[in-house]
């Protein structure tokens, strides 16, 4: 199920969108939502980490294949995001402490942090950015 949701769904939707963009001669950008877990092994998250790593690579291949059509493809890779589900799953200080302590900024991401990163990658302000993963992790991966 995780592979279906995190990888296959993105592949199928991207194919539909890219075909339409190419047929209409539309330049633009596709941004996939990955995770910091694509870059770091996390205990008890083997399938999740694997699907997000696969999504990062899919995005790189898409960037290479769609670039000649002026379509950029990138990922945003957030840490835990404080959505309703994020708050439920990470509100216990004992559970969240180990993760928070590895984030130099000392907090989890808010929805706007991810949205603003996506908007940047969709905008012309990132016109030369493709095949990249933008970490929105408060520095988790540097710790």
Detail the topology: elements first, then pairings:
Elements (H helix, E strand, L loop, with lengths): L1 H23 L3 E6 L12 H21 L4 E8 L5 H7 L2 H8 L10 H12 L10 E4 L7
Parallel strand pairs: 1-2, 2-3
Helix pairs in contact: 1-2
What does this structure look like?
It comes from Eurystomus gularis. Keywords: NADP, Oxidoreductase. The chain has 143 residues and is α/β, with parallel strands linked by helices. It is 50% helix and 13% strand. The protein has a single domain, classed as 3-Layer(aba) Sandwich (Rossmann fold). A 3-stranded parallel sheet has the order 1-2-3, with helices on both faces. The chain is globular. The model has no long low-confidence stretch (mean pLDDT 96).
Shape, principal axes of CA atoms: globular
Summed up, the domain count is 1
* CATH topology term: Rossmann fold
- Our Rg estimate from Cα atoms comes to 16 Å
Mean pLDDT across the residues is: 96
Briefly summarize what is shown.
A 3-stranded parallel beta sheet has the order 1-2-3, sandwiched between helices. The longest helix has 23 residues.
Key terms:
alpha/beta; Rossmann fold; single chain; 3 strands; Sc_DH/Rdtase_CS; globular; 143 residues; three-stranded parallel beta sheet
């Amino acid at each position: 199920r995780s592979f279906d949701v995190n990888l296959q769904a993105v592949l199928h939707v991207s194919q539909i969108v890219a075909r339409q963009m190419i047929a209409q001669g539309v330049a633009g950008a596709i941004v996939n939502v990955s995770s910091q877990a694509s870059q770091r092994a996390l205990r008890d998250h083997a399938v999740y980490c694997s699907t997000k790593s696969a999504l990062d690579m899919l995005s790189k291949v898409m960037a290479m294949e769609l670039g000649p059509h002026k379509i950029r493809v990138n990922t945003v890779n957030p840490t835990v995001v404080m959505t309703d589900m994020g708050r439920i799953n990470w509100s216990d200080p004992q559970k969240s402490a180990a993760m928070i302590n590895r984030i130099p900024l000392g907090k989890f991401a808010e929805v706007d942090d991810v949205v603003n990163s996506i908007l940047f990658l969709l905008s012309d302000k990132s016109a030369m950015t493709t095949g990249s993963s933008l970490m929105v992790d408060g520095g988790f991966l540097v710790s």
